[in-house]
Design brief:
The chain is an alpha+beta fold. The protein folds into 3 domains: 9-50; 55-103, Signal recognition particle alu RNA binding heterodimer, srp9/1 (2-Layer Sandwich), CATH 3.30.720.220; 104-152. It has 5 helices and 3 strands, in the order ααβααββα. The longest helix has 46 residues, at 105-150. Interacts with AURKA, AURKB, BIRC5 and INCENP. May be a component of the CPC at least composed of BIRC5/survivin, CDCA8/borealin, INCENP and AURKB/Aurora-B. Its main location: cytoplasm. One of its GO terms (cellular component) is midbody. InterPro entries: JTB (IPR008657).
């Protein structure tokens, strides 16, 4: 007669129970610790908002569309380092002209085709691996059948 218990008896050993308790204790500590740290991070975020660029905290107008950084801008504009492209914006409240890093369509198209090429290359590589593995398994199966026939 079989037991109706869905929990295997091996899971009820003291060592396994202690490991489960330790695991779930660490998980709950991580969750509650993150919640406590989240409150501290909220106060830090408020103080950082004062130091944030004007385009993050107020409305802005794009004065010059997204364009590649030239040699001088690479050295003088910190926004060029992120993507290599910047746009000039005008913050409406503070009336400041500043640079904001942006992503150009040319760069996005280049990244898209690079991704597509990588995926195509990986497809070809894995297709070759699958065909080679299938041939190897077929060869092993035919060798096994041949050995069985020879042993008769």
């Amino acid at each position: 007669m079989e037991s109706d218990c869905r929990i295997p008896m091996s899971c009820l050993r003291p060592r396994i129970l202690a490991l489960h308790a330790l695991f779930w204790g660490l998980v709950s500590l991580r969750v509650f610790g993150a919640a406590l740290l989240g409150d501290e991070k909220a106060t830090v975020a408020v103080t950082k908002a004062a130091a944030a660029p004007c385009w993050q905290v107020e409305e802005f107008l794009v004065a010059k569309e997204c364009s590649a950084c030239d040699g001088l801008q690479w050295k003088t504009v910190p926004a060029c380092v992120q993507t290599g492209y910047v746009e000039m914006i005008n913050c409406t409240k503070s009336n400041k002209d500043t640079f904001k890093s942006c992503r150009s369509t040319k760069m996005e198209e280049h990244l898209f085709w690079k991704f597509e090429g990588t995926m195509l290359a990986l497809t070809v590589v894995f297709a070759i691996v699958v065909v080679a593995r299938q041939r190897s398994l077929d060869r092993q199966a035919s060798d096994k059948v041949r050995r069985q026939i020879e042993s008769i």
